[in-house]
Structures are given as C-alpha cells and as structure tokens.
Amino acid sequence: MRALLIVMILICAFPSYSQAQTKTQSTHKSPVAAKNAGTAQIIHQTEITLQAHQQALELEKKATEKKLARLAAKNQKSAQANREQLKNRLKALEATLKSIKRDTKTVAAARNDYQKKFGSLVSVQAQEKGAKKQSLSQRDILAIEVSESSKSAVMAEILNKTDEKRLMQIVTILIDHTGTMDSAEKEYWRNLPPSTPFEHRFRLLEILATERQKLAALERTCKSDIQQLNKHHLTEWEKVNAKGTPRKPKGHRP
User: Fold this and answer.
1) For the chain, what are the domain ranges?
2) Which residues of 170-205 are buried (b: 16+ CB within 10 A; e: fewer)?
3) Between helices 164-177 and 148-161, what is the axis angle to 10°?
C-alpha cells in the first residue's frame, strides 16, 4: 500500500507525465487471461463428492472384511477362489480410500488458500449467484479480469470519453475487494476530492485493475487444479466401481 501512495504522490507532482504514461500503458501490456466462474462451487462440490465416495467405500470395505472372516474356516476350492477375489477387492478399496484421503487434504488446502485470497466460500458463492444480474460496472469488472484486450477496451472507452462516473463506479468496486488497503485507506480513496484531476483517478484505476487481473489469474489456476483433481478422482472411482460390479450368472433373465 505504501508503494501505491508513493505512486499517487508522484502522479500529483507530475500531471503531464502522468497523462502521457496513462495513454502509453493502456496500449502496451503483456496479455493476461483470467476468468472467475464458480470456483467456490467447484471446491465445495468436490469436498461433498469425496466425502460421499469415502463413506460408500468404507461401508463396502467393512462388508468385504466380514465376508473374508466368514470364509476363513472353509477349505473348499470355491471358498479359496472367493477369498482371493475378496482380498483383491479389499486391496483395491484400500488403495482408492488412500487416494481419496490424499485428495481430500489437497482440496482442503486449496480451500483454505482460496479463502485467504477471496473470502469465505459462502460469500463467494453469493457473489457468483448475484452475477447473473450484472450492472454495467460488474460487466466492466469481468472484462478487466478476462483478458488484457478486453480490459484495454474498457479503459480506452473511459479515457476517450473522460467518463469519470463510470471510472469511479469501477474503482469503488475494486477498492471494496482489494487486499492491499486497510479500511482507512479504502475510505480515503473512495472519497477523493472533486478537484483531483481525471488522469490521477484513471491511474488509480489502472493500479487496481492490474491487481484484480493478478487475482483473477490465481482464481483460474485454482479452478483448473481442482478440476484436474476431480477428473482424476472420478476416473479412479469409475474403475473401482466397475471392478466391484457383480457379473450376471449365465442364463439370467431380467
């Protein structure tokens, strides 16, 4: 935040330089692709799925262990064959349960890290539901997050029209969600005096928009990691379920 204050002081000291820099920076930045679309829900649903699958496999594991115990005293060939099948099944169940426990720890760590950066899952989910009814400012925020080209388009429109109202609406939203300001600093930047030159406000918007893009990139990375974990887990789940499906006896009719 101290760096932000220094930048703003320098801008106020050199307004003509600030305006030239603003126009240059709006057209020369490295592209950043990011998208915020339901990561909180994916994390929450993954945790529920892993828990449900773990419970189902633990029940089957107990049932399999009981079957093995009942067959322990039998010496028939059929009993021996059944024991081998049950032992193999037990190994598969135990291996999948270990994998689920590892995945559960991974998702929990991702959730904790996500909440430190973006807030609680409940509050983020509420924001995602509310995004269906988006105002122009909210659509501008999404454009800033999605890509450098869409961000530049929004910034260019604001700059070309000297649209201070639209600028301050976006700035107000970005200030509310920034992690680099405390409450007093947020209040100060929300209530900049009317005499503050437009180019200075625009520079503040650029600083906050860059921060927002970086957070959006983290959001996309988190979402991708959880989706990959989900895909891997579902593949394992399908395999263990397929091996556990009893074969129909010959001549069986439904």
Assistant:
1) 34-241
2) bbebbbeebeebeeeebeebeeeeeeeeebbbbbbb
3) 140
CA dist 202 and 196 (Å) reads: 10
Q: Which two tokens stand for residue 48?
A: 């529920």
- Burial-class residue 144 by CB neighbours within 10 Å (0-12, 13-18, 19+): buried
Phi-psi region at 162: left, alpha or beta (left = phi > 0; alpha = psi -120 to 50): left
Residues 116-157: tens digit of each pLDDT: 777 655 555 555 555 445 566 778 888 888 878 888 888 899
This prediction's pTM: 0.61
Return the half-sphere exposure (C-beta side, CA atoms, 13 A cut-off) of residue 193: 3
* Residue 11 CB neighbours (<10 A): 22
Cα separation, 44 vs 237, in Å, equals 18
Give CA–CA dist 198/18, Å, rounded.
11
